[in-house]
Automatic annotation (TrEMBL):
GO terms for biological process: cobalamin biosynthetic process. Pathway: Cofactor biosynthesis; adenosylcobalamin biosynthesis; adenosylcobalamin from cob(II)yrinate a,c-diamide: step 2/7. Its EC number is 2.5.1.17. Homotrimer. Keywords: ATP-binding, Cobalamin biosynthesis, Nucleotide-binding, Transferase. Residues 3-165 form the Cobalamin adenosyltransferase-like domain. InterPro entries: CblAdoTrfase-like, CblAdoTrfase-like_sf, PduO-typ. Belongs to the Cob(I)alamin adenosyltransferase family. Gene3D superfamilies: Cobalamin adenosyltransferase-like. GO terms for molecular function: ATP binding; corrinoid adenosyltransferase activity. PANTHER family: CORRINOID ADENOSYLTRANSFERASE (PTHR12213), CORRINOID ADENOSYLTRANSFERASE MMAB (PTHR12213:SF0). This is Corrinoid adenosyltransferase.
């Protein structure tokens, strides 16, 4: 099997059910999701097998779900069943709540940093935000699965919480933005 097909040599690519220019906003969106998936793979590699086993397993699931997001965006016509569901979003919300309750309280904005894994998870967060912005543009032009946008929105929060846990479980402080006012209120006890 040849990996090269030469069908994209003139700047077009295939969606499921049609062809578009390679700079079509749908291609930009699912291409960014693919880029994100690469960084998720890097984060998996960097996570400690014992202290962060749960995060590692979740990230493997997330890699498959990111392919689902790309698949839902790669259809030229809106006549197919979608893969991304509200249940996937609910799972992310539950994990975010667990990690945020486990992580140390924060009062200021956090900069990407700490452990290599936490830093990569922050990169995942920022790429997710870019993908989310692109999907907003896609939905202005095409009918899409609204759950993809919601999933990406929640996923960026998940990566923030996971980065904080990656630092906390390795006993590494988050990097606070030193010019930040105290912007996060602590719950009353």
């Amino acid at each position: 099997m040849n990996i090269y097909t030469k069908t994209g040599d003139k700047g077009q690519t295939s969606l499921i059910g049609g062809r578009v220019n390679k700079d079509d906003i749908r291609v930009e969106a699912y291409g960014t999701i693919d880029e994100l998936n690469g960084f998720v793979g890097q984060a998996i590699y960097q996570l400690d097998e014992t202290t962060l086993k749960d995060v590692k397993e979740e990230l493997i699931t997330i890699q498959h779900e990111l392919f689902d997001c790309g698949s839902d965006l790669a259809f030229a016509k809106d006549d197919h069943p979608y893969k991304v569901t509200n249940d996937m979003i609910s799972v992310l919300e539950k994990r975010i709540d667990v990690y945020m309750s486990e992580a140390p309280a924060i009062e200021r904005f956090i900069l990407p940093g700490g452990t290599p894994a936490a830093t990569t998870l922050h990169i995942c967060r920022t790429i997710t935000r870019r993908a989310e912005r692109l999907v907003v543009g896609v939905q202005r032009e095409y009918k899409i699965n609204a759950a993809v946008l919601q999933y990406l929105n929640r996923l960026s929060d998940y990566f923030f919480a996971a980065a904080r846990i990656a630092n906390a479980r390795e006993n590494v402080q988050d990097v606070e933005y030193i010019r930040s006012a105290k912007v996060f209120k602590q719950p009353k006890k």
